[in-house]
Amino acid sequence: MTNTQESNKVPKKFRNLKRSFMKNITLRNDHSFKSFPKGLRFHGQEQEEQVILIIRSHWIIYVPQILLAILVLVFPWLLGAIVPAIFESVVIFISLLITSFLIGISILVSAIVKWYYNVDMITDQRVVDLDFPNVMAHTMSETQLEHIEDITQKQLGLLGSIFDVGTVYVQTAGSAQNIEFTNVPRPRDVQEILSDLLESKEKGEI
Amino acid sequence: MNNDVNNMLDNLGKNPLGGLSVNVATLLKFPLVLILFGNVLFAALLFLRSRILADTFQSSSISLIKTIITIYLITTIIGSIIAVLFLLVG
């Protein structure tokens, strides 16, 4: 999609904001970095509240899980190479195959679900962070834009440099919850978008 | 008495379990059933958690995620039952 088409998706009240905001928000949108998503709802969303940006972890974070799933899928043959007796009983080998297939699928599906539900949102009123670390727990933190004091982004390691992945830390005033956007794509752009938004909020433009 | 002593001396240094044969297939059965049970439990928990999360957050692709999780749960249950039946037969 061209930049002009992306700009047309931006609601009118945001079109007069800073040029850097418009540039960052409309550039290279994908499933991990999507501006003004359609059909999105979250718990506690106000009637007039507009979701500006939705960010998910970069796909590169899930590569170890995909590799593990492949390893589990070929495990019966690896075990057979070490213990040839496994091949002697066809029935046992088939059940081992089914088991490794099911576990491999479990790893892949849990990676997809984690990717989908580990989501960070920037709205015109607040910042929301939904974390789904494992199957037993999830946390949802949010803070109003007015409470944000400092925004820091950190890019670490080779992967961070190659794939432009990093973590954005949103520090808040007082006892409000600090928020982390972990392993997100384009962390510098996220920081800039949030800074521009805070500036516009202070000026009363939104 | 002499024979016993001779037998004892003859068997010195030999593996006392040398005659015991262990069937690897039989050894695998119990851990496999445990792993399958754990996997079904994991699938059920993931299904329940995703239902809670669907109330917390939903986007346009929520129906796709729900379909994936439902198919995954059904596949896991049916696959586990088949695998356990194979283990019982084998």
From TrEMBL, chain A:
Keywords associated with the record: Membrane, Transmembrane, Transmembrane helix
Source organism superkingdom: Bacteria
Protein name: DUF304 domain-containing protein
Bilayer-spanning residue ranges: 66-87, 93-117
TrEMBL record, chain B:
Keywords of this entry: Membrane, Transmembrane, Transmembrane helix
Superkingdom of this protein's organism: Bacteria
Species per Swiss-Prot/TrEMBL record: candidate division WS6 bacterium GW2011_GWF1_36_8
Record-annotated membrane-spanning stretches: 20-48, 69-89
This protein's record includes keyword Transmembrane: yes
Protein name as annotated: Uncharacterized protein
